[in-house]
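Read as chain and fold; for instance:
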Amino acid sequence: MNKVILVTGANSGIGLALCERLLSVDTEGLQLCLACRNMRRAEAARSALLTSHPKAQVALLQVDTSSISSVISAAQEVKKRYDRLDYLYLNAGIMPNPRFDVNAFFKGLFSRNVITMFATGEGILTQQDGVTPDGLHEVFMTNLFGHFLFVRELEPMLCRAGRTSQLVWTSSSNAHRSAFSLEDIQHKKGTQPYSSSKYASDLLSLTLNTHYNKQGLYSSVICPGFVMTNLTYNILPSFPAFLWTLFTPIFWLIRMFTNTFTLTPYNGAEALFWLFKQKPESLDPYAKYHSLTSGLGNNYTQPRKMDIDLETSESLYEKLLQLEREVRKKLKDEQKESPP
């Protein structure tokens, strides 16, 4: 039977590169679903994939992970279309309105942490978060909670007797414990919502394994490395994207000293693609699988222990379940009040 693979945020960047790589090794044995917010861009991505792989089965699904109703509607559509779901790549994400701290940048430029600063953005990037129409903080909802609801809705398809399914979260080297707080899981009070949301995804992946492995569902986390995508370009929103190419020689030089500068979406998708070929039972739930590229341009995947613990991950899971109950009740109440 064909494997069914759904990728959120698949219309560009790492998500689209993953889809291209998957079809390159198995054009006819996969049913690929591009789950995207912008359907015009999704159509363009689908056309590009079919141009390279005319026999491929590529479907589109509209989903906005910042919207509760969109996530639930999308999950219902998935259940209508498919009777199974083998891989769910939770890749969509945002880093809204990033602010670049010039002083911190130049200070870090002449310090021993310069490579780390470039690779993770630590200390030089802050974000101005927004609030969704549902009343939840936008980065938390888009990067974490929307995906959590999606998984919960699709649980019957993901947990099937006699076979395994995989969740794969696109995390980041910017996922820092210091940015996350159990008392403020939406990161309402901080300036590092992106880092907080990615650290929370690391935690959530661990506890999902605890609760779902016996039902055949396995969760893993990857880091794509430093990749030149729209997310990267938005770090300096007033800086034209084409001017980033001027930095390319510098980035290539840095890559001679660190393997985290994957630079291209194809390279950044290495760990996502590598996990597709692994038996989920063999994977380490405490590891983040990093896409790495050597100075000579060779791609490989390396597991690195995450700075997480089961107690914190379980506490986050309980808080997310409680929030899920609250938003579902609110949605149900709103539906009752709406005229037929």
Q: What stands out?
A: The radius of gyration is 20 Å. The longest strand covers residues 30-36.
